[in-house]
Amino acid sequence: MVLWDVDGTLVDTAGHGRFAFEEAFRTVVGRDPVRVDYAGRTDHQIALAMLDGKHDHLPRVLEELAGALEARKEALREEGHAYPGVAEVLGALHGRDDVVQSLLTGNIESNAALKVSAFGLERWLDFDVGAYGSDPHERRSDLVAVARERAATKYGDSTGAVLVGDTPLDVQAAHEAQARAVAVMTGFADRQALLRSRPEALLEDYSDTAAAVAAITST
Predict the structure, then answer these.
(1) What is the dihedral of CA 120, 213, 202, 146, to 10 degrees?
(2) Of 57, 35, 33, 34, which is closest to residue 44 (Cα–Cα)?
(3) pLDDT per residue as tens, the chain (219 positions)
(4) 199 vs 195: CA distance, rounded Å
């Protein structure tokens, strides 16, 4: 099972994910949020940071977040992009009988689907067995168990899980859940930070489809 992060790994949303979050917060709370670090964190964690750890407004912020990004869908499609080579790698993995691909992302489920579908990537992904920021979790690594359970229910026991992400927090989540980690330098972290997180493989980008597939599927 290959579980993809979304932002910084598959797509660049040209800042519309952050803009939608800020709009949702302002709608609910009535003021601008404090600046928080988004990279590698789930929407649940980001919203809590904006709310100073208070849960009172959390459900409403996440509800408004879905509508705020939906309103930006056309701008996201026009200004954002999937990273070069992503479609080719997804297509190559989809063609293998021993691979199921889905998402493991901090995005709430509706926003994750919107972001990848904006660039035609949904055809290679099984959203049913993914795990999202809208699923119950305390740590990002908790979502791996969610995805494994869903995959086992739909396909039977999987032979293993591989997380592909662009931040050290993605790598940490994989290791905490006893999964392989493949880091890619398309997103928000620099090379040395990713190396220090000790992924099982590190990709510069997806320009070499065969090399990317080999790194992801290696045991």
Answers:
(1) 70
(2) 57
(3) 999 999 999 999 999 988 988 999 999 988 888 888 887 688 888 888 888 878 788 889 888 999 999 999 999 999 999 999 999 999 999 999 999 999 999 899 999 999 999 999 999 999 999 999 888 888 889 999 999 999 999 998 766 899 999 999 999 999 999 999 999 999 988 999 999 999 999 999 999 999 999 999 987
(4) 7
Gap between the terminal Cα atoms of the chain: 12
Q: Which two tokens stand for residue 40?
A: 């590698």
Task: Tell me the CB-side half-sphere exposure of residue 144, using CA atoms within 13 A.
Answer: 23
Alpha-carbon torsion (196, 197, 200, 206), positive or negative: negative
The one-letter amino acid code at 149 reads: E
Taking Cα atoms as reference points, which of 133, 212, 213 lies closest to residue 173? 133
Nearest to 197 by CA among 180, 211, 209: 180
Name the residue type at position 184. Answer: V
CA dihedral 200, 206, 207, 213 (to 10 degrees): 60
Place of tokens 């592909």: 164
What's the angle, vertex CA 141, arms to CA 161 and CA 109, rounded to 5?
85
Indicate the pTM of the whole model.
0.90
Rounded CA separation 29/32 (Å): 8
Encoding tokens for residue 94?
């989809």
**The two structure tokens encoding residue 158:** 């999987």
